[in-house]
Amino acid sequence: MGVTIRQIAEAAGVSRGTVDRALNNRGRIKPEVAEEIKRIAKEMGYRPNQFGRALSMSKQNLKIGVILQGAETPFMQTVLQGIEQAKAEVDNLGGTVLLTKIPHISARGVLEAMEQMREEGVSAIALAPVEDADVKSKIDEYVEEYQIPIVTFNSDVKDTKRLCFVGQNAFQCGRAAAGLMGELVSGEGKVAMISGYSSNPSLSDRVRGFQSEMEKKYPKVELLGPEYCFEDNTIAGQLTEKVLTENPDLKGIFMNSHGEEGMCKVLEDLGKAGEIKVVANDFMGRNYEFLRDGAISLLIGQDAYVQGYEPVMILFRLLFHGEEPQGEFKYTEIMIRNAYTIPQ
């Protein structure tokens, strides 16, 4: 026979109601008391009845909110696939996943989506944040005042009370890009940086990682930028043409966001494809085509599907089992491909 809530209550010296609130993360309860009850339950081998818990969740209409920024980009379309799979699994066990898609990067959009989700009674939120003081303040408010745990994905805001982060170690990705670019340009010459949004923490970390590693290992490389294309191919193309016009001796471009198609078109039109060394990010859109044709020298990728799936499931496991995430950071693998390692 399995361990019961009554037995846990007796061992912890609290009421069955307190145990139920601690294990199901509902109602107000002192964090230290909840932690002690969960520790005792784990030591006693307590496992909830999943069918009964699912029925209970259905009656409570337990909801998890997901806020996806930059939803129209190829990368986020794959993130969305992971979210949809997690949504199907949560729905099957009696919960509900509410998804808000924001086409571009928008602090106001995030704040409005968070408030709407709170009004609709969500128990937790997974979101791709933006570097904005109001968004950070709102995250802390939701965690502290409303007891709504928040998991960030794709980009992170470390200086908040969010539960954990799922995504690429963006600073390390930038360092990796610098190491690759440094060798491609033989450690000297001009290299331009084109990014998406200065308010995107992940893209900013890539830039910082790239700059720091370049300055450390390749001091003869002159860095230009970063310039921001807002993940728009037309603007990315214009920025590429501008930097080439102003710097005819340019040797490389680090493109760390969506906008690769616009950049590669200009390189091809100017007869510079293959001559200008390009390190870009993500195995999405036409990037494999550009890699195969030589317009992009190297691609650095990440697991977009996991970034969509895992945040929802972390929150589900927290609400369903009382299972805390293993660590503050769940970094996805940094993968590097060239023209010879493209999947067939």
From TrEMBL:
SMART domains the record matches: HTH_LACI
Superkingdom to which the source organism belongs: Bacteria
Compartmental location: Cell envelope
Record's GO cellular component terms: outer membrane-bounded periplasmic space
Annotated ranges, domain HTH lacI-type: 3-57
MF term (GO), any: carbohydrate binding
SUPFAM superfamilies per record: lambda repressor-like DNA-binding domains (SSF47413), Periplasmic binding protein-like I (SSF53822)
GO BP terms: regulation of DNA-templated transcription
Pfam families tied to this protein: LacI (PF00356), Peripla_BP_4 (PF13407)
Family: Belongs to the bacterial solute-binding protein 2 family.
Protein name per the record: LacI family transcriptional regulator
Lineage: Bacteria, Bacillati, Bacillota, Clostridia, Lachnospirales
